[in-house]
Amino acid sequence: MTVSLNGVTKTFGHRLVLDNITESFADGQLTALLGPSGSGKSTLLKIVAGLTPLDSGQVVIGDRDVTHAPARDRHIGFCFQDYAPFRHLSVFDNVAYGLKVQRVPRDERRRQVEELLGLVRLEDFANQYPHHLSGGQRQRMALARALAVKPDVLLLDEPFAALDAQVRSELRSWVRSLQRDLGITTILVTHDQSEAMEIADRLVILNDGKIEQAGKPSFVYDHPATDFVAGFLGPLTYLDGIAYRPHELEVGAFGEAGENVRVTDVTRLGFEVRVTLENARGETTWVQLTHDEARALNPVVNQTLVVRARAEHSVLTRTSQH
Amino acid sequence: MKRSSIVLRCLVLVYVMALLGLPLFFVFQQAFSHGWAALWAALHDHAMGLAIVLTMKVALLAVPLNVVFGIGVSLWIVRRPSWLSHVVDVIIDVPLAISPIIVGLILELAYAQSGWFGSTFARLGWKVMFSLPGIVLASIFVSLPLVSRQVIPLLREVGDHQEQTAATLGAKPTRIFFTITLRSIAWTAAYGVTLTLARVIGEYGAVLIVSGNIALVTQTLTLNIGANFENFNAYQGFVGALLLAMVSVMVLVFIGVARHRMERKRHDSFA
Questions:
Q1: Does residue B207 share a domain with residue B248?
Q2: Which of A85, A93, A150, B143 has the fewest CB within 10 Å, making it most exposed?
Q3: What is the ipTM for the molecules in this complex?
Q4: Which of A47, A73, A78, A81 to mutate to test the interface with B (most CBs of B within 10 A)?
Q5: Which among B161, B170, B179 has the least Cβ separation from residue A84?
Q6: What range defines the domain where residue B24 resides?
């Protein structure tokens, strides 16, 4: 179901946390609310959930104005960053909680919970308690618990932040495919731009309580509307005062077309090689080369090379390096 | 084992024995010194029987009131903080800081028939001082922070994410309180309850003032024990003390169990 925010404003004391946010989250899509800490993204999610009151504005889910509805009447599923497992209840009872509230008959409840536990691959843990589960399992339990009440909208607050790298990337793609299969409108809060780029149909980038830009990840990456978005979505490098993505600059041997530069540093970062360069005016820039490119060129410190923008590069904002 | 550690252990043992073990032992020894028959007779002492009934009445009224108040005020302080709740948070420790005898005097000042509220109550026909309500009031006062001081830090530690999640699952506040909040503080609250119970049963100073210490009428078990000692009936006093000591031991055992459960729960949650 579509979620629409209309002029949502929120202050904590004298601090303006959300400044007149108007945005729509399309039905069935996974939208990432992306921003640095303190940008207001989690507050916005809690306002959609009805867990935090707003100062002014409107929240609409589907065709229901829920601005003044308590969380329990909003038909949403919410997962906290810490998963908030009900510690004193078994995995089964955690997932069954919402169904019990809805007075779903016992047998039907059992059937639905078992189905959900199968969906999140926790069938064998039904009688365990949350403290027996790993972080990833707790997260899947929290998801099953939220999905049990068949919410119109799924709200996830930093769902992968507390997991270690391997589990995180597994769960990410799993959550992504689960969301697609269920076709449930999902809003996910994250501060991790690579996570947002990978998982989301659409990005909404927040900074300082305002929306900087919203759009498809690839579009926003290539056509950032502001300096903040450009810098936040990925690294930038500068040549003659113009910002580029590091892979959009290329280096060539001395004598080729381009600006003469001296190599000041070569760093290998796994698959890629970062080469730092300095021109005659003492301005530094850096480029990212693939392993093959680096092998062909074999840059060494103090060597003179040339640097130029690749033919097909997206023009980013023209900003001074300083 | 290091020698210093053995010395330390012995010191602790001697200290505990001298302060707790020996006096407790003497209470038992004195109570049994006249044989079983005398003990049996003393247990059937009329005044002591009435005192026990009164103490039980006081405990049955004061402990539940204090538990409801303690949990309620803890939730208010932790979940709905305001300047007023901060003030209450500080004031609530006052009963621990001032002597019970002063508590008794304050209550007398306020509730005696000539006192601030007492005159109003008297007009309504309610007698607060020198009767059950006054004793209950004094008992509540001296044990005021015992539940909330246990529950407040736990509520802070547990946080409100479980409660909020339950709300998103459709649960109403009362349901959330009974199925989530109360369940996560149960053992800690139970620990506070036993502390409260021990304090209420054992209170002497405040109750002495507000009850008037009228034998057969407003004499609680502690007052009865004190009166027996003053009236050169030490044996009867020791029998009363034996009963109190046995209740204390039971409370201690329960506290031990509750603490164990509490710590296990905390340990689990961080595993």
A1: yes
A2: A150
A3: 0.84
A4: A78
A5: B161
A6: 1-31
